[in-house]
Amino acid sequence: MFEIFGIPSQALFGQLLLGLINGSFYAILSLGLAVIFGLLNIINFTHGAQYMLGAFVAWMLLTYFGIGYWWALILAPVLVAVTGVILERLLISRLYQLDHLYGLLLTFGVALIVQGVLRNHYGISGMPYSIPEELSGAMNLGFMFLPVYRGWVVVASLVVCLGTWFVIEKTRLGAYLRAATENPALVGAFGINVPRMITLTYGFGVALAAFAGVLAAPIYSVNPNMGADLIIVVFAVVVIGGMGSILGAIATGFGLGLVEGLTKVFYPEASSVVIFVIMAIVLLVKPAGLFGRAS
Amino acid sequence: MMSAVVEGKAASSHAETGRTAKSRSHMALFLALLAAGLVAPFFLYPVFIMKVLCFALFACAFNLLLGYGGLLSFGHAAYFGGASYITAHAAKVWGLTPELAILVGTLAAAVLGLAIGALSIRRQGIYFAMVTLAFAQMVYFISLQVPFTGGEDGIQAVPRGELFGLISLKSDFSLYYVVLAITFGGLLAMHRIIHSPFGQVLTAIRENEARAISLGYRVNRYKLMVFVLSATLAGLAGSTKAIVFQVASLTDVHWSMSGEVVLMTLIGGMGTFFGPVVGAAVIVTMQNYLASFGAWVTVIQGAIFVVCVLLFREGIVGKAASIFKKFGAAVRKS
Asked: By mean pLDDT, which of A189-203, B63-77, B113-127, B160-174 is the weakest?
């Protein structure tokens, strides 16, 4: 072990890794928000609650049905996405003709309901979810010990983010999606079922959030409030990055996570506000966001 | 600039008769509310009504920005809670009299509103809501960490003190009339703002921003001004609340408080002058009666959000006004 700027390398790289993990969650969540916003034109305030639901469903699958982590990684996003599809069909779809703000208010209300119900049932103390056996333990990288699970979270998030980028930018389905974002009426005229696409897109965005939730379950304790504060930070991330570019959203998410981690090392008091300060600077210098197109 | 204002006035003069009728009915409502406020403490628990009054002022201040400026701020707790911290500190540590403590808190909210508003108005629509929410969260974290706010405990045992150093506010009754005066002062000021040429320009910007720009208005300056006014009045409400309850705590700066004020405005009627007053009364009463249900209150509030957005977007006062109008039209026809 050695020291950098008077900081033991283990502490520095440990915090950087933690920052990278937070950054993964920022990236996945802001990606989901951006995909949903692109097509539905609403800001999905329920996103934090859906992230939390992902973690909860994984915990429930294990506790009540004995279904382990790997299945939960697939099942939880699918199940939460189904609830998202129902939500979109039943409630959100009634608001497309109205001001965007109503979508924000509706999804805020839904988030309050979901969080409140789970808080009544499970309290706020949080339940542990143990790391799967295959991913427990740590590796010695020479300059630091890397807990295997944390490394896995970063890799899995990167794969999912880049996969999403590939689907949206490089496939025919993604081309439809981008076209519908630009001009839904025209895409509909070509015989593509736009309402169904909107529903599935919402489901997909929600599944991303839930996936992040399952990844987070073994790191943070599973509790009903875990998404509530996170989503506000993610909003700031979205404002900083702008929602115009997918790779931009991913890079912003990971980058801000790292910055937060670094702040924790050098000036811990500011670590909870550093992202908001960066947002203020970006608003001053480039209001449309780092990767945003000027409106 | 001036000529445009005059032009706007002339263009709307044909609607003048409707407006005088409206402002006359507003005056009648003001007087009725004031009369009700004067006798209310003889029938209801004064502290409860003071709570309603503080939240009514807060919700009206928020509605000034949303209903008339067309800007949805999801971070109004920052000014409400921030001002209450400053007032509590001023009254307790600096030993200021209550009116000065409230003044200091309100001014602090104005400064905070100026800083956050200047940054937030650089983005529009949905981004504006996210930016204000994020800045409010920043204020929350700062309140949690700086030493003078007392962290999780907040500032407790804030003295109510003596008004102008003369009149003791220890009794709920005497404090009540001070709070009533502050609330009505705030409401009247807002009424004046909304019905001034400035307010008319705001409405024009809300309805059609591009056209307002093409008419030569400096739209951003108007937006910032209404933002600061709204933050200031929200701060006045928060400061008053700190004196009434003798405490300033993290609850008042938390995002759920920002959500609550949105809910009050939504349920009462966005863009109606008295809607937020009704909404505040409904929500505070509900919280009082449902306090024993604990976390279910959040669920109920969420459900009200959903129902209001889907089925009841006009709000109570908006709905009542449209029923009244329909009824009036039917009477005139017969």
From this structure: B160-174
Q: Which pLDDT band holds residue B196 (cuts at 50, 70, 90)?
A: very high
Chain mean position to CA B191: 12
Which candidate from A100, A117, A273 shows the least CB-CB separation from B138? A273
Q: Residue A115 falls within a domain, yes or no?
A: yes
| Chain B closest-CA separation from residue A142 CA (Å) | 36
Element (H, E) at A43: none
Look at phi and psi of residue B299 and say left if phi exceeds 0, alpha if psi is from -120 to 50, else beta: alpha
Q: Could you tell me if residue A277 is inside a domain?
A: no
Instruction: Please say whether the dihedral angle defined by the alpha carbons of residues B286, B292, B297 and B298, taken in this order, is positive or negative.
Output: positive
- Rounded distance between C-alpha atoms, residue B104 and residue B301, angstroms: 33
Q: Measured between CA atoms, how close is B198 to chain A, in angstroms?
A: 24
B231 touches B215 (CB < 8 A): no
Higher pLDDT, B230 or B170: B230
Residue B283 sits at the chain A interface (C-beta within 8 Å): no
Pair of tokens at residue B235: 């701060």
Cα-Cα end-to-end distance for chain B: 47
C-alpha pair distances (Å), A196 with each of A39, A186, A201: 11, 15, 8
Q: Check if A95 contacts B (Cβ < 8 Å).
A: yes
Do residues B264 and B315 touch, judged by C-beta distance below 8 A?
no
CA A117 – CA A232 distance, rounded (Å): 21
Q: Pick from A46, A86, A94, A113 the residue to mutate for testing the B interface (most B CBs within 10 Å).
A: A113
- Count of structural domains, chain A: 1
Residue-wise pLDDT for B259-309, tens only, equals 999 999 999 998 889 999 999 999 999 888 887 777 788 899 999 999 999
Q: Where are the domains of chain B?
A: 44-253
DSSP state at residue B155: B
Of the candidates A83, A78, A52, A81, the one whose C-alpha atom is nearest the C-alpha of residue A67 is A78
The rounded average pLDDT for each run of 10 residues, N- to C-terminus, in chain A (295 residues) is 69 86 93 89 92 94 90 94 94 87 92 92 85 81 81 93 92 89 88 90 95 93 89 91 85 93 87 90 86 66
Q: Token digits for B207?
A: 């309805």
Place of tokens 């109205």: A98
**Of the partner residues A95, A109, A235, the one whose CB lies closest to the CB of residue B130:** A235
Tell me, yes or no, if B294 comes closer than 8 A to chain A by beta carbon. yes
Rounded Cα gap, residues B222 and A58, in angstroms: 50
Residue A235: closest C-alpha in chain B: B130
